[in-house]
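> example.struct
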């Protein structure tokens, strides 16, 4: 591309009047890139470790999961940042509840669709916000500060509950978690030769 194009492009992207709108475009771009970086290696490993099917079916599953993750992040960023921009233009400021409402709307329309990718993302966020809210509550003296480390108790409660659910109510758990736990805790009880004892699983 010509030098004049780069000069014009740099002038536009550095113009403060365009910045709020360009921030939405960059957010969409970052959503796509981040979604691909996070989902592709995860889907690659999980598909080839645990999914049955032909090579083409596995590749299709990997690409579908990657596309879903990337496009959903991009869509959410667009909705969230666009609503915040509209609020800023209308009221000249963004309050905390505006942020909650913008994310609520984006979450409903993007991450409210039930599929494996959205389920994993929402569960990931749920665990993070529970810990974050507990820390916030401590900072604001809503719950007492602890002298002893709290993380060991967090780990104990999480693993105690998840293994109880897996062993006695497995159907309520996400399918990928069921597969992982079956591999670790049930498949390790089954073998009938040295080969499927140590070399391969079944």
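> example.seq
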């Amino acid at each position: 591309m010509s030098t004049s194009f780069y000069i014009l492009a740099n002038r536009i992207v550095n113009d403060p009047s365009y910045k709020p709108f360009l921030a939405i475009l960059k957010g969409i771009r970052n959503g796509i890139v981040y979604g691909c970086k996070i989902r592709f290696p995860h889907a690659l490993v999980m598909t080839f470790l645990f999914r049955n099917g032909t090579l083409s079916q596995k590749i299709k599953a990997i690409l579908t999961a990657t596309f879903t993750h990337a496009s959903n992040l991009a869509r959410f960023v667009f909705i969230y940042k666009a609503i915040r921009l509209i609020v800023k233009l209308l009221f000249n400021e963004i309050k905390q509840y505006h942020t909650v409402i913008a994310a609520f709307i984006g979450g409903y329309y993007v991450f409210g669709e039930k599929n494996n990718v959205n389920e994993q993302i929402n569960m990931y966020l749920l665990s993070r916000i529970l810990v974050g809210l507990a820390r916030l509550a401590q900072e604001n003296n809503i719950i007492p500060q602890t002298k002893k480390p709290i993380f060991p108790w967090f780990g104990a409660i999480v693993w105690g509950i998840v293994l109880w659910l897996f062993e006695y109510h497995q159907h309520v758990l996400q399918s990928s978690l069921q597969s992982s736990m079956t591999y670790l805790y049930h498949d390790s009880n089954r073998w009938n030769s040295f080969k499927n004892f140590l070399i391969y699983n079944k």
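> remarks
The chain has eight helices and no strands.
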